[in-house]
Amino acid sequence: xxxxxxxxxxxxxxxxxxxxxxxxxxxxxxxxxxxxxxxxxxxxxxxxxxxxxxxxxxxxxxxxxxxxxxxxxxxxxxxxxxxxxxxxxxxxxxxxxxxxxxxxxxxxxxxxxxxxxxxxxxxxxxxxxxxxxxxxxxxxxxxxxxxxxxxxxxxxxxxxxxxxxxxxxxxxxxxxxxxxxxxxxxxxxxxxxxxxxxxxxxxxxxxxxxxxxxxxxxxxxxxxxxxxxxxxxxxxxxxxxxxxxxxxxxxxxxxxxxxxxxxxxxxxxxxxxxxxxxxxxxxxxxxxxxxxxxxxxxxxxxxxxxxxxxxxxxxxxxxxxxxxxxxxxxxxxxxxxxxxxxxxxxxxxxxxxxxxxxxx
Length: 360
Description:
Blueprint: H1 8-20, E1 25-29, H2 34-45, H3 53-57, H4 59-63, E2 74-81, H5 89-93, E3 100-101, H6 110-129, E4 135-138, H7 146-153, E5 157-158, E6 164-165, E7 173-180, H8 200-204, H9 222-228, H10 235-241, E8 244-246, H11 250-253, H12 280-284, H13 288-294, H14 304-317, H15 323-330, H16 337-351
Parallel strand pairs: 3-8
Antiparallel strand pairs: 1-2, 2-7, 4-7, 5-6
Helix pairs in contact: 1-6, 14-16
């Protein structure tokens, strides 16, 4: 094994390779995660993970990255900006007839894009090193504490909205990492927390999902409610959802560090099928075949067709009581009891019924 200092030319190569693959920054850190693990244990003990049982089930892998990659000593962390230009998120949120979809989900599934590019960088690292390495690329579907690693590497700090923030570019970026046994030199120091006294992300959250700074209660988070949640949406949280039918960006949209957020030229993240400004009625009328065609290769597949219709029914119930909306809901012919429940709620909202406000 060469000495650590022999790898400095390799770091320069990684910088070039990562830029060529579309990554906007990279940094190297060690795997010290003691404090991050303590924070995760506190979060789990409070039940804030909702029904995301895979977090508990794979707890030991998150605690010790060497269980994923034997002999790993470093994480090479990468950042890729994803915000498409000119999608006008605030205007969509303010138009109750339109469907708001989290900006990350407007294009192709980022997991495939980033994993493929990380794999190419990892292959080049292995070829350059010319020795037997233990290494593996990861994107956020794996049990890796990528936000603490990215913050430790110096790619930003974890803000009060639990996202990684970077003062020059904001927070509209994806993270990925390569765990490796190569003892690369550490490239930077953790950035200071610059949230200060700001609580904009916490106070703007439609469902009040932040019980305290730096802590997210997934049970109240619209992203969890509309994507990971496979059951009914609690009635008390349906009105606050507004027209957000897949994910939520509010805590990013109000963040001062996102006033001049970096946008991405990456074509994979560009909106497809006009999803950045679609009408709720139009999307609700997609049959299953249309949905499968329009969401092929999209993150929206995560919620499933039933979850998609459930979310849109809530959006319609929170929108204007137009004849088109009422007809679309009343003419639904599906068989899902889950969707039917939310359609009934939506029709009640639009009809002005007063018996739809039972506690959730």
